[in-house]
Every structure is written in C-alpha cells, then in structure tokens.
Amino acid sequence: MSNKNSKNILLSASITALLATSPTVFAAGNTVVTQWNEAALEAIRITHPGPPIVARALAITHTCMYDAWAAYDIKAKGTRYGNNLRRPSNESTNTNKEKALSFAAHECLSDLFPTEVSSFNALMTTLGYNPSDNSTDTTTPAGIGNVTAKAVLDFRHHDGSNQLGDLNPGAYSDYTGYSPVNTPTAINNPNHWQPLEINGNVQKFITPHWGNVIPFAMKSGNQFRKTLLKPADYFKDPERYQLQAKQVLEYSAKLTDEKKVIAEYWADGPASELPPGHWTLFAEYVSDRDHHTVDQDVKMFFAMTNAVFDASIASWDAKRFFDYVRPVTAIHFLYAGQQIESWQGTVDGADWKPYQAANVVTPPFAEYISGHSVFSAAAAETLKLFTGNDNFGGSVTIAKGSSRVEPGLVPTNDTVLYWATFSDAADEAGISRRFGGIHFIDGDLESRKLGRVIGQNAWNKTLSLFNEESHHGHSDDHSHSHDN
C-alpha cells in the first residue's frame, strides 16, 4: 500500500486544540469546501446539537454550496433553481466557484448556527471576501451564493424539523406529543425506551418528530420501515429478547483494550462531531488522498451528507415507531438481584453499566435502529460509489491512557485502528455500539443493510442532479424532478 493511502487521518487532539484556541483557523483538507466543512464541524463541537440535527445541518450546508457551484457547471442542476441560474461558460473559473460557494456556506451556517457567526465572518475575511456583502445580483458570484443559499434555507425552514420553533416553541422541539412509557424509576414495559436520570437530569428523547422531516431522496421517513425485522418482544418472544441481552453482557464481560478503544473512538466522533460529522472527516481524508479539485469536493460532500441526512430521517422514524428498549434497561429488568460479569467486574444486574462515559451512560432516544450503523453504512456506500471502489486506507492512533471511561488505564499502549475499506470502517462503527453496550445485534445489523439501501437510493438522485449516469459517466439527457 502506498504512503498516500496509509497516511494517518489527522483527527488528532492537536488539531482540535488548535481549533479550540484559534476558532478562526480552519486548515483542514486542500479545498475551500473542506475549509467550510471544518467551520461547520467546529460549530457543531461548540453547540452540541443532537445527531439528526447534525446530519441535517451538514446536508444543508453542502447543498447550499452545491447549488451555488452548479451555476458555474455546464451540466449540474441545482436543487432549487435547476439550471435557471447557469452562468456563461467563460465565467466557470475556480475563483468564481470558490467565491459563490463561500457566500452560500456563510449564509447557510450563519442561519444554522447563529451564535457562531463571528467565526464564519472570520473565515470569509481570511478567504478575501466581505462577509457583509448581501448582494442578490446573480450575475456575480456573491449574488449567486446568497440567492441559492436563501432558496435552500427557505425550503428547509419548513421541512418538518421545526428549526424555527414555529411548529412548537423551541428550535427542533417535538410537536408530536411523544411521551415515554417508562420512567427513570419504573420499567412499566420492558419492550420500550426508558429515560434515565443522569447527573440529576432526566433524559428527554431527542427529536422524536424527525421521521416527519422532508428527506432528500426518500419518498418519506417510513419508506423502508417495512423492510426492517421487528425487534424482539419480551412478551411474545422472550428467548430472543433474553439472547440479545446475553450477547451484550458477553461483550461487556470480555472487552479487550482494542474493543474498549473501538467503543470509545466511535462514540461521538474524535472531537464530538457525532457520526454524521465524523464521516465528513473521512471525506476530508479522501479529498486529501485523491487530490480533489473543488468540483470533486462539492459533489462528494453533497452526495454523502444528503445520504446521511436521509439515514437520520429513516432511523429516527424507526426509533419513534418502535420506541424500543436500550440494553441498559433490558439488562436491569432481566438481571436485577443476580450477580453478573461486566467490564466493571462482578456486579448486581441492577447496577450494570454500558462502557460509556459517566455523563452519557446511554443515548437519550430509543434503541431500534442504530443511528451509528445506518449513518456509517450510508456514508460508506456513498464514498464507495463516488470514488468507484471501496478502498479507504484510513487509520487513527489512540494514545495510551486516553480513555474517558477509564482514564489513565485504557488503552495500556498506543492503539492503532486501521480500515482497509470504507465498509470496514462502517462495520466497525456499527459493532462499536454493541461493544459499548448501547445496541443489540439486530439494531446494528438491520441498520447496516438499511444504510446501504439509503446510500444507493440517494446516489441515484444525486446522479440525476449531476446529470451523470455514473461518477465518471456521460451526460444523460433525461429530465428529472428535483422538488427536494
């Protein structure tokens, strides 16, 4: 394998520290697209939105950039204006493309992360642009960027996400009246999600309305739900219910250093970007590895983030519909009063804990299906389709003693995680949640299958917008509807 392909992904603490001390510095990747992606990730790290909100924010950001860029491409069609804003071919310079997509990204991110506008302004200034230029003149790059971003934002402001709090007060708040069956102190039904009390705060299900959000390529959030295996019902199928809990306990009791590292590394991204953001770090690596042009980066990030956005809608639709129990609740229910083995040694079943940081324990939403698995499979499928093969060659070194669950103790030595293929990385992300005691086997494996289907489905729509039959294919002359 060449050095280029085996080069470590720079997901290191040093970059995070640099960004933390100098929030205006975005020095990732090799195009302006990756710089704006880093700006988005830093806003996510600071504001901590939930996973589906992260997926939507990244998809909108890269859609705004794509729509601005499309005005300067001879074939591509924008999602809102189609080819109505296309500029003459003599204007299709990198300078114009970079300026247009930067104005679009700035407009978009300022809307999505209003508390972080100063850092977006600083990046604009660093790039040589005036962040207060609000031109709507579509004969200019600034005008193209502002106008295309506004059109995408106007559409997405009313997509069912409740970003503006107009469906129920509070940005992204639930408007569907979800209420958990169980309480922090009572398991009223062992098939259903239980909010936990963590550090004095009772968990609240993040965005239970998300299945209603208008997708990118899917017809609806529940389009693929019927293809899912129904999760194990304690009353109807107690053996399957108990078996999946036993599998989680066996993982917990036999966690090696490497499995602990895998559980932690994938938990919420190297620096709290969450899985949707984590996969854009991998896309930055691909951009660097393959020496991408701006055109290639615009297309790759647009394709991948929209596939992951659809994955967020499908997975949260299932989470709300099945409202399924997490391993921590099922194990407490099944094993309270019994001595069981775990990563903590021998404990009472009522005291069993997943291998997670103390401030997490288990995520604040239902188990079935796995967000990590579906996000990762959709992203991996897209990167495979975009690059034309499954080769990844990414790796990361986890420093000795850097665990947040067992600080100073795990891992006992520097540990390298390496992924030959995108599929390997996605599969490791999926099983990491079983190592960590967050998901059952069906929640992982069903989600991996679904993610690949969602990735392919989104790719088909993406190609129609690129006006290509394949990534390196020929233009097709069919007309397509682009209402999303």
From TrEMBL:
The keyword Nucleotidyltransferase does not apply. InterPro entries: Br/Cl_peroxidase_C, DUF6851, NapH1-like_2nd, PAP2/HPO_sf, V-haloperoxidase. It holds the Pfam family DUF6851. Gene3D superfamilies: Phosphatidic acid phosphatase type 2/haloperoxidase (1.20.144.10), Vanadium-containing Chloroperoxidase, domain 2 (1.10.606.10). This is Phosphoesterase. PANTHER family: PEROXIDASE-RELATED (PTHR34599), TRAF-TYPE DOMAIN-CONTAINING PROTEIN (PTHR34599:SF2). Residues 300-458 form the Vanadium-dependent haloperoxidase NapH1-like second helical-bundle domain. CDD domains: PAP2_haloperoxidase (cd03398). The keyword Signal applies. Coiled coil: none annotated. GO terms for molecular function: peroxidase activity. Keywords: Signal. Transmembrane segments: none annotated. Residues 1-27 form the signal peptide. It comes from the Bacteria. It comes from Methyloglobulus morosus KoM1. Residues 61-195 form the DUF6851 domain.
